[in-house]
């Protein structure tokens, strides 16, 4: 069986929920404490055994390329000033033995279209997708949990979370044929149905493992919700030929594409941060909210 070695990061979206911060800088570069969201995503992929990171970028996303490139001026300055730990921090942004590829999506035409931009690099292999604004804190990296399911089931696997019924219009929502514990065999998927129309409250969140057959399904998809090429519609097509599974992962997700989710992540990561947690807890206590 082919190993999962490649991950796609669709990072071409305009990040309108975070304007004006995202007018000129990518939302994926917003930091949670001291690390940009995209770096958390890259680290999750690396710790799940991924060897190739494929970024699908748009015009305003060059900061992401720079972040994963070497920075000789900065490194020389840190060497001159003998700031060894900072130097190590900068040099380990791209984990060892991992290659980065950058593909330009010429216009934002939806998540399905963005993923399809990676087709010529992925070729005929199963692969992973991470949406970096869904930050997931877990003991076992969420992507690793999905990859383990892929190796058992040899099928496309979607990360699932039970959400409030009132929120179904923000997610792809699935219905299932059968379940064993946290693993579901999926029957249908609909992009952002209203709470009235949604059959369940099981939402797809930003982690996927796909068989390469998804590409031909994306090619058949017509613009759907928001007039975009939706990955949800391609998954629906895929289900007609292959099994698709969903997995409720262990861990806590922060929707860092929303202001409140972003703040929650900032607080929780700061509370666990080696240098900051003590002072931050003292500060919060003094606030007496
Ligand atoms: C995308 C997908 C949606 C999925 C969500 C997870 O929506 O289209 O199916 O549930 O990501 O975060 P977006 O958040 O980009 O609007």
Describe the protein in words.
This protein has a single domain, classed as Spore Coat Polysaccharide Biosynthesis Protein SpsA, Chain A. Helices cover 33% and strands 25% of the residues. It contains 11 helices and 13 strands. The strands form 3 sheets. A 5-stranded mixed barrel has the order 8-11-9-10-12. It has a two-stranded antiparallel ribbon with strand order 2-3. Strands 7-13 form a two-stranded antiparallel sheet. The protein binds 1-O-phosphono-alpha-D-glucopyranose (G1P). 1-O-phosphono-alpha-D-glucopyranose binds at residues 111, 131, 134, 171-172, 191, 203-206, 230, 232. 1-O-phosphono-alpha-D-glucopyranose (G1P) binds at residues 111, 131, 134, 171-172, 191, 203-206, 230, 232.
> Roughly how much helix do the residues carry, as a percent range?
25-40%
Q: Looking at the structure, what is the overall shape?
A: globular
How many whole angstroms does the radius of gyration measure?
19 Å
Average pLDDT number: 95
What is the CATH-assigned architecture?
Alpha-Beta Complex
Unreliable segments (pLDDT under 50, ≥5 consecutive)?
none
The CATH homologous superfamily is named Spore Coat Polysaccharide Biosynthesis Protein SpsA, Chain A
Helices and strands in order:
Elements (H helix, E strand, L loop, with lengths): L5 E6 L19 E2 L2 E2 H11 L4 E6 L4 H6 L4 H9 L3 H8 L7 E6 L6 H6 L2 H4 L4 E4 L3 E4 L4 H12 L2 E7 L9 E9 L2 E9 L10 E9 L3 H7 L10 H8 L5 E5 L3 E4 L3 H13 L5 H11 L2
Parallel strand pairs: 1-4, 1-6, 4-5, 8-12
Antiparallel strand pairs: 2-3, 6-11, 7-13, 8-11, 9-10, 9-11, 10-12
Helix pairs in contact: 8-9
């Amino acid at each position: 069986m082919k190993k999962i070695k490649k991950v796609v990061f669709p990072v071409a979206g305009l990040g309108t929920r975070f304007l004006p911060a995202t007018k000129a800088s990518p939302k994926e570069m917003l930091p949670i404490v001291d690390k940009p969201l995209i770096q958390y995503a890259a680290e999750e992929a690396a710790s799940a055994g991924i060897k190739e990171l494929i970024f699908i970028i748009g015009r305003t996303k060059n900061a992401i390329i720079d972040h994963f490139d070497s920075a000789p001026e900065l490194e020389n300055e840190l060497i001159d000033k003998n700031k060894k730990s900072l130097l190590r921090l900068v040099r380990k942004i791209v984990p060892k033995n991992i290659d980065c590829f950058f593909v330009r999506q010429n216009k934002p035409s939806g998540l399905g279209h963005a993923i399809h931009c990676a087709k010529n690099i992925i070729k005929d292999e199963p692969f992973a997708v991470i949406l970096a604004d869904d930050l997931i804190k877990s003991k076992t990296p969420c992507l690793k949990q999905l990859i383990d399911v892929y190796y058992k089931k040899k099928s496309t696997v979607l990360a699932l979370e039970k959400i409030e019924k009132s929120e179904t219009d923000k997610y792809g929502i699935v219905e299932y044929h059968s379940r064993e514990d946290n693993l579901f065999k999926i029957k249908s998927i609909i992009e952002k149905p209203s709470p009235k129309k949604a059959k369940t409250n099981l939402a797809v969140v930003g982690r996927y493992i796909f068989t390469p057959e998804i590409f031909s399904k994306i090619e058949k998809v017509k613009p759907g919700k928001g007039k975009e090429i939706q990955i949800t519609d391609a998954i629906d097509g895929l289900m007609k030929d292959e099994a698709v599974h969903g997995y409720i992962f262990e861990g806590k997700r922060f929707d860092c594409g929303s202001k409140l989710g972003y703040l929650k992540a900032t607080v929780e990561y700061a509370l666990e941060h080696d240098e900051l947690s003590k002072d931050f807890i003292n500060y919060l206590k003094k606030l007496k909210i």
